[in-house]
Fold this sequence. Notes:
Elements: H1 2-5, H2 8-24, E1 30-35, E2 42-43, E3 50-51, H3 53-73, E4 81-88, H4 93-109, E5 114-120, H5 126-137, E6 144-147, H6 156-166, E7 171-174, H7 182-190, E8 194-196, H8 199-204, H9 237-246, H10 252-264, H11 270-295
Parallel strand pairs: 1-4, 4-5, 6-7, 7-8
Antiparallel strand pairs: 2-3
Helix pairs in contact: 2-3, 4-5, 10-11
Cofactor: Zn(2+)
Keywords: Hydrolase, Metal-binding
Protein name: Adenosine deaminase domain-containing protein
Amino acid sequence: MRSLLCCETEYEEHFRRILWRFAEDGISYAEIRLAMNYGFAIQSGDGNNENNHAGMVQLLADILNGEHPKIQASGLAFYGVKFIYACLRSIPKERMKWCMNTCIELKQKFPDLICGFDLQGQDIPELLHMRARIDELGLDLPFIFHAGETQDHGSDTDTNLFDGILLGTKHIGHGFSIIKHPLLMKLCNEWNIAVETCPISNEVLGLCPTTKAHHPILLSNCVPCSDPGSWGASVLSHDFYQALMRSNNLSIPGLGVIAEWSIEHSCMNFDMQEKVYKDFEEKWFVFCQWIIDAYGQQWPAEPEIHVDIKVPADIDKCQGNLYF
């Protein structure tokens, strides 16, 4: 599959279909992790040239600019996508530094498209230098790390939760083992760090047997999906359904709150967040009204309860007793 998708024509068509699937599933905005490992390139259609990382982003930008108006013209609400530059931490440090520098260069070249940087694996000291460089250039380029993607306690994958939070990550991808660290949960709450928990992905990866055993769902500030195309799932609907079925404590209004959180914790600027939130609120009211119209008549009306409360004349002298 990778060799097929590394061809320019297939790469473009794959991304084009992703955009339409997002919009058709009701997703109005997405932040996509791009696999930007060292040396990864896309072959041109004739096979004679390669598109480097900058060329890959330019290809995607051209497709986005071409498809965005078409999606909106079809009547679907869609505000586009941004990209998270993602690479593996298992590569040698020199190659890692190259990826970091490339990410910064891409942010400068595509400021409205590159929205974050992610490393998949153990955190490394070079991230401190990258953070300093980003601050020096005045770029809005947050870290968005995978961390805690394990059942272990004390392993490298578990302890990189500490590194990610101390490095100021905006989101934590998966964060499955964070339940074992009450202090980190408290810091995520206080510092407004979103936990991106993926119900179906965590089942497929063997982190939990069923969604009912998926405890981080209670902590999450979003419910993004992870690699849904790998098992033929929809882009997000199935994850939301699994979250809804997981517990009686998470109702349809709860899903609405999670959707609102996904807007709040996105990398959109404030004005765009306000616009997207307003659009979501309007559609949410329409959705709730549809539920009432479609299913409300199936349930008997709640009986009205009338309670007569007799207030004694000397109410000021009472010690909290009321008479019914």
